[in-house]
């Protein structure tokens, strides 16, 4: 078995999140004798200005190739033209976040980053026996991975994807996933089901959309208590993550 790790989205303070990923995720895998390959696709705005996250006029401070020990990566400057088509689909529905579609736009960038990440992971020639982890690089992990606790269903072949059990918001938490090949592909390329997902739930909402995708693909889902807190570019944690501490 190999573990293929894919990082996606906006990197923030990887000098802080990188060591937590090393301690909580990578070290337990390597101690179990599981070789790891890592790829990342990163979507970088020139400036972070997001009232919902409390980040205003901040420059992203991150060096993912150094901090995340990547074998393969792609770093793109954020460009709204790249998400014009999915964003147009989302704009045909109400704003699920109520912030003038700012969060919807950011979600579209994240979904596109996942799709691009899957193209990078394909370079590792993934096979059915691989364990695949799709991780946001801006989470500071606080629990060490326990294979028996956190991966049992996938390792036994009875589960396709494992997601966090906290903050499901009416669907499935989409911050990270431990998956087999079938589920990882569905998780990473779900932007191509956006029109169907929006029609089903009446808006683009990250967790409900992931729940729709899992149901559409008939994925067997389990959940883990392993925690990862969103670390903002100024070093603050997202306020509604603090309760997890």
Largest sheet: 7 strands, mixed
Count of helical segments? 9
Q: What is the spatial order of strands in the main beta sheet?
A: 5-2-1-6-9-8-10
Q: Could you tell me the mean pLDDT?
A: 94
Proportion in β-strands: 15-25%
Output the helix-strand order.
EHEEEHEHHEEHHEEHHHEE
- The rough form would be described as globular
Structure description:
The chain is of the alpha/beta class and 245 residues long. It has one domain (3-79, 111-195, 206-244): Alpha-Beta Complex (Spore Coat Polysaccharide Biosynthesis Protein SpsA, Chain A). The chain has nine helices and eleven strands. The strands form three sheets. Strands 5-2-1-6-9-8-10 form a seven-stranded mixed beta sheet, sandwiched between helices. The protein has a two-stranded antiparallel ribbon with strand order 3-4. It has a two-stranded antiparallel sheet with strand order 7-11. A hairpin with a 4-residue loop joins strand 3 and strand 4. The longest helix has 20 residues, at 102-121. The radius of gyration is 17 Å and the shape is globular.
